[in-house]
């Protein structure tokens, strides 16, 4: 049975595995049904067919969110949680969240980024009145996901998020599929780079190119302003996504959570990579001896 926060600590982030639907309901009802602090909001993010059964067992109003819709991409989900926390949950007295992420139907790269998402919860929500309990169905979830869950949630096997994120980045990124379109860029080239990106993405079948163009423009701007000043762009498709690789062969990043931590509302300059991660379906970054690669993915 998972440990339940007492209400005196900031950020409780626990996990539990279950083998029967009844076990999920019992643990969820215990977590949500214990004494609610004044103003505390109770949230369930799970399969929709479990809402009614949980509501019957919990003597408090529940906010219910369909996991299939909620767990869209890690960055968008983090952004939505932060937005609700800042605007509604935390000012009212805090939030208690029972969540069951969606793992089936994900590619290996997507699973890796959702594992990272669980580690990032510990960074993004540190110091907030948030209690989160994440459920894992041991009948369907892989052993790799279960092992990661033990390391990304508070407990005996908890791993520092910086270390866990660095381990995620050890996975190599596959080389671009042929054919690819490419061009270099430097200061003064952004307008032409935007036109090139939009044209190539549309040619690959992307009907709504504007978000990707904005994201490419932002990353290229960062390379010009904060990197070596010179970069290259590759545009290609893997059959399911349009992919843009932006490469700076000299610049090395030192921020393990670039674009994942919410920007300070008082500093608009912090918002660039946060926006990039929301504009794209997935963003992967690799930095090392050969420079830095930003890989932006948008689903076809």
TrEMBL record:
Domain Histidine kinase/HSP90-like ATPase: 190-297
Coiled coil: none
Keyword Mitochondrion: no
Domain MEDS: 16-154
Superkingdom field: Bacteria
Upper lineage: Bacteria, Bacillati, Actinomycetota, Actinomycetes, Streptosporangiales
Entries under Pfam families matching the protein: HATPase_c_2, MEDS
Name of the protein in question: MEDS domain-containing protein
InterPro entries: Anti-sigma-factor_SerPK, HATPase_C_sf, HATPase_dom, MEDS_domain, RsbA-like_anti_sig
Keyword Transcription regulation among UniProt keywords: no
Keyword terms, alphabetized: Kinase, Serine/threonine-protein kinase, Transferase
